[in-house]
């Protein structure tokens, strides 16, 4: 299974450089075929979500991380377009507010985790606190290691209380990011998507790749794996994330609650 090669459950032999952002391991070789496959998967996932929501017992947390322009928003729009809004929620983490900074860094994250029957998508996440903070030396190496340990404990708490965690690193190349930023500048209708700070962060590309590699290696476990999603192709990125979610549902096998015996014989007049 191609997914097995991109699922990271232990950081002992993990090397981010060994994954090509331009590869398309899940592709059928044709864009139109891949788009049709995404549509079928999305509709199938929608049906599974209905059962999952009715079951109202377990929870799913999807973490989307990646460099600017890697497609976190696009993944949400494409893969989850058919989902019932009653059972899904998207949380986008921005720079922490003064109120959030006055508390521990996981405080604002814990309050957003899914409740029973809910799927929550984190567009960025608690991992920002071991990525941008480390790249800019806002925390030192010792504090970063402490946070890795705290994140592992936090995710263990979630999994032991019924949450399935799926962590996707949308792996884009520096050249592809350049092309996407240039496309935003060239199209006035896309200027709203351009943030000058993206250029400042781009200068730290190597430091970010090192930070991602360290964070993924330190927090990958069999219960909370990371998936490396080659993301230079938007279509392939969406297809692979949809395949990952389909595999998650195959594993958890959601089922409608059993029929209630106390409802037998009730008549609606």
From TrEMBL:
<dbReference type="InterPro" id="IPR022488">
    <property type="entry name" value="PPK2-related"/>
</dbReference>
<keyword id="KW-0418">Kinase</keyword>
<comment type="similarity">
    <text>Belongs to the polyphosphate kinase 2 (PPK2) family. Class I subfamily.</text>
</comment>
<dbReference type="Pfam" id="PF03976">
    <property type="entry name" value="PPK2"/>
</dbReference>
<dbReference type="InterPro" id="IPR027417">
    <property type="entry name" value="P-loop_NTPase"/>
</dbReference>
<dbReference type="InterPro" id="IPR022300">
    <property type="entry name" value="PPK2-rel_1"/>
</dbReference>
<dbReference type="GO" id="GO:0016740">
    <property type="term" value="F:transferase activity"/>
</dbReference>
<dbReference type="InterPro" id="IPR016898">
    <property type="entry name" value="Polyphosphate_phosphotransfera"/>
</dbReference>
<keyword id="KW-0808">Transferase</keyword>
<protein>
    <submittedName>
        <fullName>Polyphosphate:AMP/ADP phosphotransferase</fullName>
        <ecNumber>2.7.4.-</ecNumber>
    </submittedName>
</protein>
<feature type="domain" description="Polyphosphate kinase-2-related">
    <location>
        <begin position="31"/>
        <end position="248"/>
    </location>
</feature>
């Amino acid at each position: 299974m191609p997914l097995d090669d991109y699922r990271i459950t232990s950081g002992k032999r993990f090397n981010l450089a060994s994954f090509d952002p331009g590869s398309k391991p899940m592709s059928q070789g044709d864009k139109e075929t891949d788009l049709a496959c995404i549509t079928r998967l999305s509709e199938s996932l929608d049906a599974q979500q209905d059962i999952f929501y009715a079951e109202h017992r377990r929870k799913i947390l999807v973490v989307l991380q990646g460099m600017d322009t890697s497609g976190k928003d696009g993944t949400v729009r494409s893969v989850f377009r058919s989902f019932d809004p009653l059972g899904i929620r998207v949380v986008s983490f921005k720079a922490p507010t003064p109120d959030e900074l006055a508390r521990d860094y996981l405080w604002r994250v814990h309050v957003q985790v899914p409740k029973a029957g809910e799927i929550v998508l984190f567009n960025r996440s608690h991992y920002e606190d071991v990525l941008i903070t480390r790249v800019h030396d806002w925390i030192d190496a010792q504090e970063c290691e402490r946070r890795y340990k705290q994140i592992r404990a936090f995710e263990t708490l979630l999994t032991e209380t019924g949450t399935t965690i799926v962590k996707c690193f949308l792996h884009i190349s520096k050249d592809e990011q350049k092309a996407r930023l240039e496309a935003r500048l060239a199209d006035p209708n896309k200027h709203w998507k351009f943030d000058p700070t993206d250029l400042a962060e781009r200068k730290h590309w190597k430091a970010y790749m090192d930070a991602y590699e360290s964070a993924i290696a330190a927090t990958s476990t069999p219960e909370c794996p990371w998936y490396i999603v080659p993301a230079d192709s938007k279509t392939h990125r969406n297809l692979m994330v949809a395949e990952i979610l389909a595999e998650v549902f195959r594993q958890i096998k959601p089922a409608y609650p059993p029929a209630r015996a106390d409802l037998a014989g009730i008549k609606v007049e």
